[in-house]
Write a structure and sequence with these properties.
Elements lengths: L1 H22 L2 E2 L2 E17 L3 E4 L4 E6 L6 E2 L4 E5 L2 H17 L5 H33 L5 H51 L2 E3 L4 E6 L6 E2 L4 E6 L4 E8 L11 E6 L2 E18 L4 E8 L11 E18 L8 E4 L4 E3 L1 E5 L3 E6 L7 E2 L4
Antiparallel strand pairs: 1-20, 2-11, 2-15, 3-10, 4-6, 4-9, 5-8, 6-7, 8-10, 11-14, 12-13, 12-15, 13-14, 15-19, 16-17, 16-20, 18-19
Helix pairs in contact: 2-4, 3-4
Main location: other
Keywords: Coiled coil, Signal
Protein name: Multidrug efflux pump subunit AcrA (Membrane-fusion protein)
Amino acid sequence: MKTMKILFSAILVIFMLASCKSKWDKTQPVVENISESVYASGIIKSRHQYQVYSKVNGLIVSIAVTEGDTVKKGDPILKVLNETSELNTENARLSAAYAAVSANTDKLNELKINIDLAKVKLANDSLLLFRQRSLWQQQIGSLHQVEQAELAYKSSLTAYNAAVFKYNDLQKQLNFTAKQSSKNLQISTTMSNDYTVKSDINGKVYSVLKKAGEMVNTQAPVAIIGDASDFYLELQADEYDIARIRLGQKVLITLDSYKGQAFEATVEKIYPIMNERSRSFTVDARFVTQPPVIYPNLTLEANIIIQTKDKALTIPRNYLVEDAYVLLENKEKRKVTTGLKDYQKVEIVSGLTAGDVIIKPVK
């Protein structure tokens, strides 16, 4: 029995020593490259992606596209009932045709004939006046005849000028009315065109939000359209990190759709206003390496690389004590100066060498 107790005690001591030894994990500083980054979440967006709105209220008559269709700029998306607008347009077209200068040539020709007649009479009265004055200079005839000839000439001149004025005035009036009617037709045509909702870009229809027979208004979108091949990243960066983000910085992207893969992007735009609700800034980034299959609104996580350093002396972050100390193998607590940090490693600027052995603190 005594021998069994001694054996049991020995086994217990060995077990305790083994447990104590395994509790203190060891490591040494490693010289390697390290990068410091800031975290940002976000979504993928199609380039030029926008929500399509109708310019008018009304009932949807027909929808010309479905999700996944490729459209060109100006292609119809849907049509809204516009009987009244079509009637107004037709009425404006009739008014424009009636007011056109070409439709009023008879009125102008009539006045032109009057001008020609007045011109002939003016020439005749001018000739008679010349003859009467010549005869009066030869003491033939009377002064009264000369005065009558002068009166007839002035009357013909006035009639001729009045005919020319009336012709020019009618021409101006017709031109004005024709242009005004043409503008009214353009306005009516434009208003009529507003009842057909069209695409503003060449792209793909990602979503159709309405159905034929539903009501549409100017406040609710009817579809979502974007570029079919060009995508970018819309990131949300915390207000505490935004001052460190710069254009052109490298971004590493992970997607739930591509587990275990990382994709590279670069910062291309920083919006200079903070969202007061989320206390974050919007940052756009463009892909350097893009996934083979991608869709708008996919969620992502991003690490924006702030700075990198080659051949840095690093240790695991969980070996730090109070963010400023490490434990040496002999349990000595030593102060260190840290530099760059990522999620797993930290740079040691001073306080350790590559030959030092440190132990992991017990939590």
